[in-house]
Amino acid sequence: MIQCYDSYTNHRAKMKKQPCKVSSTPLMDNISGADRLIDNELDLATQYLSFFSKTHCFGLVKNRGYPIRQVLFSVLIWPLLGVPSFHFFCGKRLSAFIDGGKDVLYDFLKRQDINWRGFRLYVALQLIRQHNLGSETIRAAVVDDTIKHRRGKKVSAVSSHFDHTLGKQVMGQQMLEMGLATPKGYVPLDSRIYVSEKRIQDGKSQFRDKRSSVARDCRIAKDKNKNEMFRDMLKRSIRKGIAFTHVMGDSWFGNKENIKSAISAKLTGIFRMKKGNLKYRINGKQYTATEVHLLLKRRMKRLNGSPYRTCTADVQMNLSNKPEQEEWVQIRLLFSCPVNQYKDNWAVFLSTDVQLDAEKILQLYSLRWSIEVYFKEIKQHLGFLKEQSGDYAVHYASIHLCAIRYLLIVDSMLRSGEAFGKMRNHISGKLEMLTFARLLWELFKALIGGALDSLLQTIPQKTILLIKYKINETVCNFLNKALQLDEDYLFAEQKAEAFRILN
């Protein structure tokens, strides 16, 4: 935060006793009107979602001399300023927001007492409630994973993963993501880092409190597989009050346990299935997906002018993994392949609702694409795992901060009706403009100060000091409000919350 002239502090007491009257000029009148807050979408989003009213519940409290609002805002907005890295932001732009240097931000991200996962879910629930997304006809829980390529024995939670895009094993960190997909947009609900058992290169992850959220997250990353994580995430979201209607996942998540979880939760499960050895029963006989496709491929017809040929088959599936037990359920398989292609270029989808036709199944499954868009957005624009640190606590904070940035932009998008990308660029443009104005003011302050100092022979020193102070105070207040660094609003919001004025 820009500081007022230090030299004024030494004379403040004396000036209170002997106040000086400074005549108003047109310039001062214009500056004094600058406290009108610039329309800033991020500020509106934080107010709309009661962003700062519950921070203390998740460990987001002042730890040192800098206000938590100021530090949190700094780590939130840096990717939106168009800088290539977190390190560059700390070196070139950080002074516009906080005068403590990069160590303040890194120490903040390394804090182990902050429950970033809980805070991220709180913001998501606020978004769902404020925009009435819980009343949407389709509310699908979608799941997928993505990989951040990275190496280094000093980097925590690095292991070997199969990259489907490259078709080979790569070293890096894998994140499992689950969110709510509706026709209005995607809401990121939960994330987990997953560490495989292959070639683990885990840096030293020391946790002062083994019960902390970050320590527990690190243990789960190493102890559970992705399907177990997904089912835990689904149960947690349902427990928090999110009323899903569907569950969707690609072929990695198309297995008996996940299908059974969907049915148990009374949700319609739609999964892409593997062409493996999993058996389906038709008229008392059991077939693999490939064998069922051979039986039905002559029946495949073009779907309503689309570039795909499809057919469906109602079959039975045994959800039990124990040979001595049987748990047969009725499901529907959908086979799909591009027009004029007949060989191996086909896919099979499973629906636990046998009433859904082929067109509806594909239409619903297309909502899963929203999570792919989310991955692209956080990787290209929202700073996904771009902090230069090997500490697990920083990685834990990073994946949830990406989601929070996305949620704030989604809120602005839903209120304005603009497309996500356009709204993100709009917010980024305003932040860059205001940041430049803040940095430029430091130069202007020096020039104004030098000009006023040259008048010491004609104007009393205490008058010049007062003029400097008032100009700087007015401009700083304006910039602080425009950049969401004003503490007055935070105090008022917390007071209102205490009296249950806010929901």
CATH uppermost class of the largest domain: Alpha Beta
Whole-number count of domains = 2
The portion of residues forming beta strands comes to 15-25%
Q: Any low-confidence stretches, pLDDT <50, length ≥5?
A: 1-39, 495-503
Rg is 28 Å
Q: Name the CATH architecture of the largest domain.
A: Alpha-Beta Complex
Could you characterize what this model shows?
It is elongated and about 105 Å long. It has 18 helices and 12 strands. The two termini are 30 Å apart. It has 2 domains: 6-112 and 418-498, no CATH class; 116-416, Transposase Inhibitor Protein From Tn5, Chain A, domain 1. Strand 9 and strand 10 (308-318) form a beta hairpin. The protein has helices spanning 6-9, 12-17, 26-32, 41-48, 68-77, 86-93, 102-109, 116-130, 213-223, 226-239, 256-264, 289-296, 358-365, 369-380, 392-416, 420-453, 461-482, 487-498; strands at residues 140-149, 159-163, 168-182, 185-194, 246-249, 268-273, 280-282, 285-287, 301-302, 308-318, 328-338, 347-351. Strands 1, 2, 3, 4, 5, 6, 9, 10, 11 and 12 form a 10-stranded mixed beta sheet that branches. A two-stranded antiparallel ribbon has the order 7-8. It has 503 residues and is of the alpha+beta class. Helix 4 crosses helix 15 (392-416), helix 5 (68-77) packs across helix 7 and helix 15 (392-416) crosses helix 16 (420-453). 38% of the residues are buried.
